[in-house]
């Protein structure tokens, strides 16, 4: 390949991989629905991306290493202390009983539909066990199932990455046993498992030691954790192939569950490289699949998807959760969500290369697995919300309001919002400061999160759906505003206008977020009015039109700043005027002092 072709190919991988996830995130649907078609088109039109020529002999070892890094990230999510107690038993059974039933059911279906040997059918079944947080997480964000269903599905998806990959490695070792010769396949597997676990434990202990002795700066923690993950994978893989996956999973588990040093900053690895790794893998692996091969097997792929969705998953969930305390509607929801993700695709590609090197024909594996990923993604992605609503297990969208910044007037505003029936939390620089109380008790208060992962946790914890940001507060800054937009969406982040910013800055702020209070009040005006005795007041029915002109309930001019309806939903940019009588809404006014 020429230098120009190489540059175009590498650029296309990054552009398509990151761009597809960007668009999907903005439109709130699973990114794999764009990533898979992007990869298929990149490899079949032109081809724009030719992975085998682009990467040569490094392709499959590189894919395996990237899979190992994703498994490290998955291991970092497996904190046993975070799993709700009522979800622990179901999660264990789903990841043992249901996983084995899925392997058997998928393997039998592959055997009868595509007629490979029993060993290859079992290998395909093991690969199709894998679900994964990279597809389950975004889907759950859209479906919003109630607890404990949400936690069960999220933890099942996270744990199935390493478990499914482990099953796949076991099946691969069985298939390759004759090629390696001499040692029984289970002994080979035990050696790889033992070596991988040993290397992972040692690497985890060393990483914790390095961090506990402050031998790495805060800014370098994520990068050094990545270094240890690559080192652990490489050390195990050099001695025994496929042992590297065990090493990275073990490393993640050790680091996530120790209590010696905080590891919040290591999640930066997931927030940065994970997007690039997932996007690159899907585009590269999709480019390996010839569309003609998928079309030739289209009816078999459709049949396999139907069996997995309508038979294997419901039976596996039904048997594994029998006797548990999960409600029937919750079990039905769990039985309807089982998408496959990037680890299944990566494992299929890596194993196809290994089998080809060993002289074993397995051309069906990659197109079939990709077909299942696309098929299950479409079915669950398009129907998940409707099924959740039909079963009555969807939670209401979060309606809480976060007031972000250190503005003094936030305190009175928060008190009146809560009085009107809204859920509210103050977000400031110091969560250890004295609690702020009103007649209903202390107002919930949080510190400014350190990163997007922590921000998402705080948002979920408090049920926050909207945020008001004091644009004049340097502590909140553009970065936090951007993070809030990323988590809540542009239309749910409101910036209070500021007289201190330029016209250009005000235009940019208006374009990137909503404007609080309809732009009628700036943060400087509110602060000045508050210093002169203005107060926030929540007024319900009947409507008080006189409040705008100085009625008995408001001695000075009043400006409506928020409307809270009977369900606690908040309009932070109300139009001039008051709600109609009988609406059940409460209006929060900023009322000037009488003099």
Walk me through what this model shows.
A six-stranded parallel β-sheet has the order 5-2-1-6-7-8, with helices on both faces. A four-stranded antiparallel β-sheet has the order 9-12-10-11. It has 23 helices and twelve strands. With 595 residues, it is an alpha/beta fold. It has two domains: 3-391, Na+/H+ antiporter like fold (Up-down Bundle); 400-591, Rossmann fold. It is elongated, with a radius of gyration of 27 Å. It has helices at 3-27, 32-44, 51-55, 59-76, 85-114, 118-127, 133-143, 149-175, 177-180, 185-212, 221-239, 243-257, 267-288, 291-296, 298-320, 328-335, 342-357, 365-391, 409-419, 452-462, 477-488, 503-512, 523-531; strands at residues 400-404, 424-428, 437-438, 441-442, 445-447, 464-470, 493-496, 514-515, 535-539, 558-564, 570-571, 586-591. Helix 22 links the parallel strand 7 (493-496) and strand 8 (514-515). It is 61% helix and 8% strand.
Shape call: elongated
State the distance separating the first and last CA atoms.
Answer: 80 Å
- Number of continuous helical runs: 23
- Content-based structural category: alpha/beta
Task: Indicate the CATH architecture of the largest domain.
Answer: Up-down Bundle
CATH C-level category of the largest domain: Mainly Alpha
Number of strands: 12
Largest sheet: 6 strands, parallel
Rounded mean pLDDT score: 79
Overall domain count: 2
Unreliably modeled segments:
541-555
| Rg calculated over all Cα atoms | 27 Å
| CATH topology value of the largest domain | Na+/H+ antiporter like fold
Strand order of the largest sheet: 5-2-1-6-7-8
Multimeric status of the protein: single chain
Estimated share of beta-strand residues? 5-15%
Indicate the percent of residues in helices: 55-70%
């Amino acid at each position: 390949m020429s230098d120009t072709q190489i540059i175009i190919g590498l650029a296309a991988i990054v552009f398509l991989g990151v761009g597809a996830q960007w668009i999907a995130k903005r439109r709130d649907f699973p990114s794999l629905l764009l990533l898979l078609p992007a990869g298929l088109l990149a490899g079949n039109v032109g081809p724009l991306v030719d992975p085998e020529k682009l990467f040569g002999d490094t392709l499959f070892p590189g894919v395996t290493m990237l899979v190992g890094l994703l498994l490290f990230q998955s291991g970092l999510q497996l904190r046993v202390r975070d799993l709700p107690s009522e979800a622990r038993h179901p999660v264990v059974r789903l990841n043992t009983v249901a996983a084995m039933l899925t392997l058997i059911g998928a393997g039998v279906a592959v055997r009868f539909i595509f007629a490979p040997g029993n060993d290859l059918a079992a290998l395909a079944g093991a690969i199709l066990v894998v679900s994964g947080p990279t597809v389950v997480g975004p889907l759950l964000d859209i479906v919003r199932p109630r607890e404990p269903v949400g936690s069960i599905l999220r933890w099942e998806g996270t744990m199935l990455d390493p478990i499914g990959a482990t099953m796949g490695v076991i099946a691969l070792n069985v298939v390759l046993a004759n090629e390696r010769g001499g040692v029984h396949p289970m002994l080979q597997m035990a050696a790889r498992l033992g070596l991988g676990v040993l290397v992972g434990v040692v690497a985890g202990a060393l990483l914790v030691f390095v961090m506990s002795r402050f031998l790495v700066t805060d800014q370098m923690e994520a990068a050094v954790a990545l270094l240890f993950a690559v080192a652990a994978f490489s050390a195990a893989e050099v001695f025994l192939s496929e042992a590297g996956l065990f090493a990275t999973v073990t490393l993640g588990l050790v680091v996530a569950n120790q209590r010696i040093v905080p590891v919040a900053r290591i999640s930066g690895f997931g927030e940065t490289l994970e997007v690039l790794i997932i996007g690159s893998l899907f585009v590269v692996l999709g480019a390996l699949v010839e569309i003609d091969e998928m079309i030739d097997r289209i009816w078999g792929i459709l049949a396999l998807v139907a069996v997995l969705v309508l038979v294997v998953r419901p039976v596996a969930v039904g048997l594994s959760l029998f006797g548990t305390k999960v409600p029937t509607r919750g079990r039905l929801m769990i039985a309807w969500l089982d998408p496959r993700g990037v680890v299944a695709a990566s494992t299929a590609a890596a194993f196809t290369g290994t089998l080809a090197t060993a002289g074993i024909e397995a051309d069906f594996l990659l197109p079939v697995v990709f077909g299942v990923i696309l098929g299950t993604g479409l079915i669950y992605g398009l129907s998940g919300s409707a099924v959740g609503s039909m079963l009555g297990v969807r939670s209401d969208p979060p309606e809480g309001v976060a007031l972000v910044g250190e503005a003094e007037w936030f305190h009175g505003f928060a008190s009146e919002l809560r009085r009107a029936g809204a859920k509210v939390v103050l977000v400031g620089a110091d969560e250890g400061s004295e609690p702020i109380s009103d007649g209903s008790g202390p107002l919930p208060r949080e510190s400014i999160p350190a990163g997007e992962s922590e921000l998402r946790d705080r948002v979920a914890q408090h049920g926050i759906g909207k945020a008001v940001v004091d644009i004049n507060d340097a502590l909140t800054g553009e970065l936090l505003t951007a993070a809030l937009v990323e988590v809540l969406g542009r239309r749910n982040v409101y910036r209070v206008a500021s007289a201190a910013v330029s016209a250009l800055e005000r235009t940019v702020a208006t374009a990137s977020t909503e404007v609080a209070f309809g732009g009628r009040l700036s943060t400087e005006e509110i602060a000045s009015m508050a210093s002169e005795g203005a107060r926030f007041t929540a007024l319900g029915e009947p409507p008080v039109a006189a409040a705008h002109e100085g009625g008995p309930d408001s001695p000075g001019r009043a400006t409506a700043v928020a409307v809270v309806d009977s369900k606690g939903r908040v309009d932070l940019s109300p139009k001039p005027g008051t709600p109609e009588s009988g609406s059940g809404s409460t209006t929060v006014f900023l009322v000037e002092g009488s003099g």
